[in-house]
Sequence to fold (412 residues):
Amino acid sequence: MRPARGWLLRVALTVSLALSVGACSTLQGVLVPVDEPVPGTSQVDMLVATTRKKVDPVQMFSGDRGPGAAFANITVSIPPASARQVGEVQWPSKVPGNPAKDFVTLKADVIDRAQALAWFHRTLRKTPKRQVLVFIHGFNNRFEDAVFRFAQIVHDSQAPVVPILFTWPSRGSVLAYGYDRESTAYSRNALENLLKAISSDPSVGEISILAHSMGNSLALETLRQMAIRDGRVASKIRNVLLAAPDVDVDLAREAIADMGSKGSRPSFTLFVSQDDRALALSRRVWGSAARLGAINPDQEPYRTQLEQANVTVLDLTKLQAGDALNHGKFAESPEVVQLIGKRLAEGQTVTDSRMGLGDRIIQVTAGAAAAVGTAAGLAVSAPVAVVDPQTRQTFGDHVQELGNSAASVVTP
Fold:
């Protein structure tokens, strides 16, 4: 065992040294507010509820787990329509970003519960039909990833809603799948408390939940927990949108069934794509027969099961989007985000993260998140990181994750 352990450490060290001149961490400070807005830009003002750990004002919240729920109020400035395409998040190449062409923040304040409630009531009064949209991001999302992606969805869908982002502790690394998955379980009570607080407000008309990828596990298990605890899901939670859910089909079916009869549970809309490469990898890692977001809804037994559960399905398999992994089509397709906004506005039932070429190589070679596979992925992606800016930004984090894994292997 010791020779293998020594090889693992040598690989980590070799790769780290090979990229020491080019590796750097992800750009810090993108949420630091700019001084003034630019004419022609749009703004999305959102409430953030999170179970992440509060850190310095530059980063705001990390990928670590906090002791309880925390809140923030963030206003995102979005570039003019002439400078962007619907479905895209324009990340700054340096700090501070340029509001004329980048997503930037105009305000980013950590607030307490009382201030969060005051913001909520103030915003609700200005919102037609008093609709609320709660977004739950997926795997491999840093805090700023979730903020900018949600701002893009709200802006591009033109949904007349009170936007609330629920962000759970994700490491923002393709090597932290297990940690992220357990963080969704850690966050169930906080999400349930948030949904109950919103639902109990007599001024609220209805609530929709939009969950992506691994965030669907958090959404489904929280609603199931609520139904078991209270006898049903809160009646104001009308729509649940499951976008590319990284959830085992059988677990999803049981969770929905535990929420009660069709008339007493929310309406579910499922976004699937059979060419979703991220979910294909997840299926291999977990040994699952199928992940819910990658099924063929026209095949049995899925067709009958979906009909019996009264789940509306949008098959995005043939839809072309900018996500090379085909995992974020719901947010990157102009047609889909505008459909979401239109349906929400009419009261009807209806990626995220930044990943470079080297990230995708690492994700494929990592296999079941074993340290040896990770080392192989890092070795292959090292030359790629020299030429691919996104890989170069995240490579240092991957090496650190590998070092942590290696340390745990050699520790007696």
